[in-house]
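for the writeup, i need someone to sanity check this before i put it in the appendix. the sequnce is what the collaborator sent (i think, or maybe the updated version? ugh). structure was predicted straight from it, no edits. if anything looks off just tell me and ill rerun, i have time this weekend
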Amino acid sequence: PWLLIEAEVVQGLTATGYQSLRTDLLNAGAHWRDEPVVEDAGVITSRAVGDLPAFVQATLALFARAAAGESVRERAPAGVGP
């Protein structure tokens, strides 16, 4: 998440990360969720190493949708957040 924060791309993005990064994400304008994996606008975030299987599954699904020509840049529904 810090890479995304430093790149200034989390404003309005729904994301997750370690609990210790929650405040950083919120201060950068993200909507934080305590879930293993969150996908928003083609960006996939996860909380911790233990969530890696879910992260890989979500990443492969995103790649498959993109390969099929589906839009992967759609935003999470308005109002989704903390």
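Residues 52-67 form the longest helix (16 residues). The helical segments are 2-6, 22-27, 52-67.
thx in advance!!
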